[in-house]
Amino acid sequence: MNQFTFESKQKTVLFGFMGLGLVCLLLAYFTDEQPHHVRFWTNFLQNTVFFTGIAFITLFFSAASITAWAGWYTKFKRVMEAMSLFLIPGLALLAVIVAGLWLGWHDLYHWADAEEVAKDPILAGKAGFLNKGWYTLGTFIIVGVWIYFAMRLRSLSLAEDQNGGADFAHHRKMRIVSAAFLPIAGFSSAAIIWQWIMSLDAHWYSTLFAWYTGASWFVSAMAVLILMLIYLKSKGYFQGVYEDHLHDLAKFMFAISIFWTYLWFSQYMLIWYANIGEETVYFKTRMEKYPVLFYGNLVLNFLLPFFILMRNDTKRKYGSLVFVSIFVLLGHWLDMFQMVKPGALETALHAAGAHGDAHGHGSSFAAGFSIPGLIELGTMLGFAAFFVYMVFNSLGKAALEPANDPYLAESAHHHV
Asked: Would you say 246 and 316 are in contact if contact means Cβ atoms under 8 Å apart?
């Protein structure tokens, strides 16, 4: 089958999970014991950035593959194109965060309080970058540029289906567009992730943070791509995608998991060795008050994929791939959970004038912050369903096999 049909049963299931996510967001808003509805806003920010980042890194991976003259992925590149188009609804979700910044709906960012900036020399020194204007312009301009490149590559790919010829003119244009996007993607993604996530801990900074987050997005994107391809194959689609293709995706997931661990250790070791209070506070807070998240991070995102995917044959077994992909995806979602929650909670408590420990109640546990609760898991499932819905919706608008792609035959005979 070369045309995807988005079945009503699939839509019903996805709408059900989206409804669950909406209910969990409302529960987080109305039942939150922390000030300024911070549980709601951190859940919203975490999932928005997580799934938008997966869309971005899929576009980056597509552009890098095109620039490198790779052909092995061609059989399933329409799934990658559909995933990258989630950037459009992702920007709409980010617009809610931006609106909340200007209208005072949330206190996620310490640097957004002008009074605090005036009396804090560290925040004042960063005010040229950490301010509402740049946050707004950066979000809309940078993600807008990503969307332009995603739509441009998609349009050239579809045009190639209709008008592709022996001169490969469309593919040459795709290569030019991809090569132009790569440096833009590298610089812009670093700048905006500093704004969205790193600035939640406004006194802290790390030169490795953009690499670290990008690696997390990459592994998550490979996990999502593997899960989607296995599911679509089970429905009769992509029968030309074999174990060899999945094997290479699993190799990427395995390799970048190790790279992520290298960055995790390097970021921790260099900051801890320097012993500068402004920097070590990030890790001290997480090690002492969020130990399950901090140490569980390594188990889910390094040990599990390392020992399962180290064997070559495991990368070809659907059951093993589904298992490790689900846990890796959950693991990196948890990693972003611990990037977001501690800093945002500290800021909300400070804005409310609360005292005590990081939770403001003199206890060591806070629902939805120390570890994810059912509300957080339900919210994640809702966002995941929204992501899948948008991908499937895009997938059904074009032929699954790119008819005139010059690398189609290479992909069909891919063997490793």
From this structure: yes
Cβ neighbours of residue 62 closer than 8 Å, sequence gap 6 or more:
77, 80, 81, 84, 153, 178
**Side chain identity, residue 225:** L
Instruction: Give me the phi and psi of 270, to 5 degrees please.
Output: -65, -40
Q: Is 130 left (phi over 0), alpha (psi -120 to 50) or beta?
A: beta
Rounded to a whole number, what is the distance in angstroms from the first to the last CA of the chain?
25
Closest CA to 71 of 403, 410, 401: 410
Rounded to an integer, what distance in angstroms lies between the CA atom of residue 47 and that of residue 43?
6
**Measured distance CA(202)–CA(347) in Å, rounded:** 9
Distance CA 358, CA 284 (A): 12
Q: Kindly report, residue by residue over 371-394, the tens digit of the pLDDT.
A: 999 999 999 999 999 999 999 999
Rounded distance between C-alpha atoms, residue 208 and residue 398, angstroms: 39
Q: How far apart are CA 54 and CA 317, in angstroms?
A: 24
DSSP characters over 14-27: HHHHHHHHHHHHHH
Q: CA-CA distance, 45 to 131, in Å (whole number)? A: 17
Q: 222 φ, ψ to 5°?
A: -65, -40
Segments of the chain with pLDDT less than 70: 165-167, 354-364
Alpha-carbon span 34 to 40, nearest angstrom? 10
Q: Determine if the pTM surpasses 0.90.
A: yes
Query: What is the phi-psi region of residue 168: left when phi exceeds 0, alpha when psi lies from -120 to 50, beta otherwise?
Result: left
Nearest C-alpha neighbor of 403 from the set 183, 77, 128: 77
State how far the alpha carbon of 296 is from the alpha carbons of 45, 327, 328, in Å.
Answer: 22, 12, 12
Q: What angle do CA 389, 395, 399 make, to 5 degrees?
A: 165
User: In angstroms, rounded to a whole number, what is the distance separating the alpha carbons of residues 361 and 364?
Assistant: 8
The domain locations on the chain are 36-388
Q: Which of 187, 161, 155, 186 is nearest to 173 (CA)?
A: 155
Q: How far is CA 12 from the centre of its chain?
A: 25
Residue closest to 217 by CA, chosen among 242, 247, 252, 241: 252
